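Q: Hi! First time doing this. I have a protein sequence and I read that you can turn it into a structure. Is that right? Here it is:
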Amino acid sequence: MSRETISQSISIVHPISLSHGKNAEVWDTTGKRYIDFVGGIGVLNLGHCHPGVVEAIREQATKLTHYAFNAAPHTPYIELMDRLTAFIPVNYPVSGMLTNSGAEAAENALKIVRGATGRTAVIAFDGAFHGRTLATLNLNGKVAPYKQKVGVLPGPVYHLPYPSADNGVSCAEALKAMDRLFSVEIDISDVACFIIEPVQGEAGFLALNIAFAQALRCFCDEHDILLIADEIQSGFGRTGQRFAFSRLGIEPDLILLGKSIAGGVPLGAVVGRKTLMDNLPKGGLGGTYSGNPIACAAALATLDAMTDEHLQEWGSQQEEAIVGRYEAWRSQRLSPYLGRLTGVGAMRGIELTSTDGTPAPQQLTQLLSLARDAGLLLMPSGRSRHIIRLLAPLTIEPAVLEEGLDILQACLKQLV
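A: Yes, that's right. Below is the predicted 3D structure, encoded as structure tokens:
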């Protein structure tokens, strides 16, 4: 099967062709089975072809496959927004809009905060990833490969260190950098919003410092600056809760959603304070495919499955299995390249480092190949591409999870 018609600017992690999948397992076109610890890069918290999601898609496809909501509203969109806004754990009136992706949600959030504040400047964080569209590229806290060769980006955007126990940046260091930013680079009164991930994904699963999150919320309140939480990857149960911002003890003004919102069907959303969401003129928000009926039906089925009881159970089981294995590997000195375990809940990363503590990207590349040959798909991350991002479906069967961790263990042991 030729790939010559596909842009060579798309980077492929695993040079295989998948044909089908079920929960946490996938098969390629040769019939080889793999355990999937990638999960479509955080899209498949409910696994491949979840029965409830598949049935909802099938049923909706017999009724209405598409209608542009801004031309004529349809029931799945209305039902989903009612359910989705009730699912957001905040204490203020919520409204929102559906989008085609997380990046599109971020783009619309920027429009919303500009309309609400009359300001244009945005503060993002080192290591951030918010999408691949032109405006979201500027938010990303990493140049290669996303910002290379694309020229001047929309702005103004400024970046601060991301404080986390997982990267060694303290709350005090981040606050000092923020003080410098407003002393040297930009007037506070020009800032529309901060945008931050409660757990960074692309950077290798770094959990935000709780004290900093609370200080940032207070700072925003004091200066009439809006706070956007990007929950595109950390949301919908990835950390064992509905959304990761809850562990921080704060409420953001806007929340970006995507990835696992609809069981693998393209969908995103920006939701938040109703006063903010309603501030643009009629027609200021919308989109032809945004809130497609089939995607909405899939999202409704996803919400049916994501009860608090299920999320806590799935998250705890996966966290205990991963942390238990990792601690055993450390005590056994399984590999000289085994670095720290990062993240929180079932959103975990494993660093590969050399004996002097520096990143070991060559060993990660070797691990990807060894694991794939052994029937396990892994996803790299981190600024140096040296962190394994563990994103198995939350619904993975315990025996399959253990089998995958067995393969990972054997491959770590082979690293040279």
